[in-house]
Amino acid sequence: MKKTASTHKTRAGRGAAALLLALTALIPAAFAAPAVAATDIAPGDPVWVGSASQGYSGTAIHPVYVPVPADTANPGTADYWAYCIEHDVSRRTGTSAVVGDFSSYLGANLFTDPAVQAKVHWVLTHSYPAIDLVALQTAAGVTNLSVSDAVEATQYAIWRYTDLGWDAAWAWETPNSEAVYWYLVNGANADQNQTPPTTADIDVSVAGPAGAGAAGSLFGPFTVSTNQATAAVTSSPAHAFTDAAGSPINTNAVVDGQQVFLDLRGSTVAGSATVTATVAGADGTGLVVSTPVVGSTTPTAAAHRQSQILVAASTATTSASAQGAWAAAAVPAIGTTLTDAADEDHILAWNGGSLIDTIAYTGLTVGQQYTVSGELMLKADASATGITGATTFTPTAADGTVEVSFTVPSGYAGESLVAFEALYEGSTATGTPLAVHEDIDDVDQTVAVEAQPLVPAIGTTLLDGADQDHTLAWGGGTVIDTIAYTGLTPGVEYTVAGELMRKSDGSATGITATATFTPTSSTGSIAVSFTVPTGYAGSTLVAFETLYLGATASGTPVAAHTDIEDAAQTVVVEKQPAAPAGPSTGSNGSTGSTGGLAATGGALPVVLTAAGVVAILLGTIALIRQRRTRDQV
Are 250 and 338 within one domain? Predict the structure, then answer.
């Protein structure tokens, strides 16, 4: 590049061309071309030409930024570098410019010839910084090549085609500079292109997620598209990348169309990130930079400053980005629904069975392992039953369901069981739970165990109705059998029928009684009365009772109590007392307490006894009449 006149320094022995293109003041290069991420560039784009440079004074190259930096005083790393293609036009740096293809060139030197453009293009693509110093020195057959020597050789080679058209005796700073120059010129001269070749387009793009995500999960997809073999993806701030299943990926080998996800499973807070896909290489080499004159924003053929030509560094890359934002992670929560496994209702058979607790969860991290553990509690007093269950699972979505099974043994008839559940991170139910659901009054997590089926049973107590003991007068009476029952269904009508049996031989007496009743509870008692006539003196009577369903003592009995040995349902009938003893006449005419019957053991005939009584009565009546007659006289 041509410096202003004040910076020129002539040297003896140089030819006319050397005088024309003399370069002076060796200034060490301040920096080498770093790895940069070039933004895609196209003709018509505005750029910024920076003031910093690489190379010797007079042949240095200048940085170019696209788009124009927000802070031009601190533009950062260059996107491109530019060589001069108008030796005789003064340069202008620290200014905005515009890029265009070869047809946009505003100068009037030899660069207007497409064949010259082809030579310049060959030089650009085979020199620094399009290739690194090691590759260039190897190609040129030199060692210890410096940036400044490489830049000088390249700039002289370009001017050889754009401004001279022949090889001048250049003012070489070093032999290496000259050697590289001849490598470039000889190569360009050997190239047969009469027009500059089309530079391969380098494309890369990133399409972000359609909507916002949530911390604690995978966020994406970010879809990478590129015409290069592979792209590298990064995020700012840094996050790990996975595929849709949550498995890690090779972030340096992402291919066209691949979808990647940010792994936010370890995060709980809201945030955002920029995902960038980068490919090696950059468009832009060969574009012409046109710089306006001071006071103008639009360069013209009549009013422009030095034209330059862009070159992308060998380390240049092309990048594209997409942003995404996510909300804070949902707090894990669970809710449960406990049902009978057999018919999916909230009632379990009285003798036990299997229960299924369906746990609905929200806010979990996809791909993270969790364990849910539960225990059945007695609703009556919230005490633990010791009946437990657990399930370990890995959710594929933040919200979903998982089941826990419980096996309920017999022994809980009539109880209500409530499932308490706790959610843990990991494969065991240890540590601090992430979420719990322990509501003793939650009907959804409650199952009622049926009451044990009622088995009707009766027992009886037979007593004398007169004094409530187990002894009945010899002449008969009323006995009351109080029948205690259990297992009856309240509100259902029953009939109890009983009969008194002889204990001596278990035979029936024919003395029966019944009672029909409707219990108000499953347990209670009912009384049945029996009337015992005379004739059972000295007998032992046992009450047999049978219980029937309904208003009559018919059909199959539902319960019976017929134990001939049961003392509680037994009454003893007293023996008949012996007849009272009276005076009697013996066979010898004497009187005594026993007379001759007692001696012989014979019985006094009833007829004779009656006749005696009549005779005595008649004698008594006659005696009374005689007394009355005497009294009257």
Answer: no
